[in-house]
Design a protein that fits this description.
The structure holds 2 protein chains of 2 kinds. By secondary structure, chain A is mostly helical. Chain A contains 20 helices and 3 strands. In chain B, the strands form 2 sheets. Chain B has a 4-stranded antiparallel β-sheet, with no helix packed on it. Chain B has 3 helices and 8 strands. The chains are: A mainly alpha, B alpha+beta. Chain A: One of its GO terms (molecular function) is DNA binding.
Chain lengths: 447, 234
Amino acid sequence: MDAKDILGLPKNPFPATQEKKPRPQKETQRKPDGVHREVYALTGGMAPLMPTIEVSHLKKRQNTEKEKISWQWLPFTSSARTDNLHLYHWVRVVNGVPPTGDYSFAKYNKSVDVVKYTDEEYKKHLTDPMWSREETDQLFDLCERFDLRFIIIADRFPYPRTVEELKSRYYAVTRALLLARAPSPGDVSGNPIVKEPYNMTHEVERKRALSVVLSQTKQQEQRDAEILAEAKQIMESRMASKNAEDVELPVNQIGNEGSEATAHAESISLLNTNHLSSSTAAPPTAECTSTPASLRMLRVYLRTHALEQMVQAANSSAGLRTIKRVDQTLQDLGVHLKPKVPTKSVCAEHLELRKEILTLLNLQKQLQNREAEASVNRDNSYAETPSTPKRSFRGDVERSLVPDSAGFGGDRVGKRDHKRKAPGRFTDAPPSPPQSKRPRKLKSSDG
Amino acid sequence: MTRRLKDVEISFPIVYGTIAFWLGKKASEYNSHKWTVYVRGATNEDLGVIVKRAVFQLHPSFNNPTRVVESAPFELSESGWGEFEIAIRLFFHSDVCDKQLDLYHQLKLFPEDENGPQSIKKPVVVEIYDEIVFSEPTEALFARVQNHPAAIVPRLPSGLNLPPPGPVNNINEKKRGDTKDHPLNQWFMNFSEADELLKLAAARQYVQGHVGKLRRQLSMIDGLPQLSKAASGQ
């Protein structure tokens, strides 16, 4: 059945009355005339924007009146080459006259004008404690050869120098030379290297910050986006409240949120992620019962959207596995993950239930950890045998909550520790028996 | 009157979705179903009290895929053969809110049971319940809608004097905005929060019970550290 589904074939070839059913999730619609659906689908559901071939042209014109074109295999040289190499290529000859002029690609042979300094100039303006004359000479030679491609220059440079150091030296020398050679400083003040000299520390910091941003996890990215959105909203509402006559939130509250938001924005611009992780908790959890500031700022929103935001806020302190376990628990309890009738009270109850389940899971874990500790203390002298029977429990909420210290100890001890929340508890335990891959409900060791 | 009421929200329960009928004998390859997409009050009251217009954004293969509906009932009927996501943008009256609200709904033409025969009489109905919430409404808006049947309005703390509301229904208007006698209303679903509340309350009780149990167990373990240590010290 599924194969037919995929192929888009009719399910029952039998009943003549039944209409041929397209695939259920068919996205393309069309209402054209005289063109087959498939052809339309090829072009992405739209007619071609321009006619491609004029059919009439195909039949009539023979192009008799224009020039006579032929192609000849001719030699050529390029002004871009210094070795007088003669190569051959096909040339379009018009009416027997071959084209003249340089090789058409020679004009692209550009290079950079790297400054050249004399010994005198070097002694007078360019000496630097961090750079020897030899090194500087080599740097400039490489710059000339490789057209200021600093990555390559850094690679070829005989002494260990970072790209930023090389750039710094090159630009400093060039700048100094420019200033020294200019009749007056005003002449070169328009030159970019004079106006904005290369700042090595700034560049190093900028690149470091970029790599931090690049290596941010998705969660961090989300949090950044949330904070920026909130900050923007707060700024906008501040603007709005300045323009309008409304008396909205009391001024000090705006001031607090505003300063919080700008603090967030500044810490983002400094790309200091340490600040972010500690301060993201503040805005969403500020009010549990009344609507959080971000929702109030919206002025109009859907109840389901509000619930989503608050659920996300509640989940922000939990790991992905815990969140999945919360969802599983909800399902086990016969509760929809998203309420079907999201009234104010239903949403409030739903949110509270989620929070209570989180508490429950945390307590379960705590209890396990304590009991495991206790049994580790007890069985400290015994090694864990690989044939320890695996407990196949955790079938539902009820059983997982029944305390069973012997079972806990036997199963828990020796499980490899890979949780961030309980480091070093089981470090002296031998490796655990292989775990089944079957989806487990509320395995207490998870999360 | 343009002052905003702090910590007050007015909400409007809505239901939005689609009803699709198979065209049966009259169905062709490119026109197999006729369907209607709509946004209605959850109790079929007139949403025109807050909604100025609704813009339905259809699949680009439709002519003029942007359909504007300027008055209640906010609905649109079309025919076609494919399922796609419809975007519904609600614009509110100027005294309500200057921001728009977007809803998204997947048009469903084919019944869940793919192998069953399609019926001309029984449509495929998908309805979603939600509530439009206006937080910190102006006094003017509150006064205007406080007695409207489409609105859920909290009781204000005493001491707040609002002028008496204007007439609730514009009976003089030619077109009725409510959907109480809508031709499709036999297919409208009833959404009652009672069942869900009951389930949630039961679930909460259950969870709370276990939380209590766990807390007791934890406190017991915490209170008896000597026992385990004594055992290991043998």
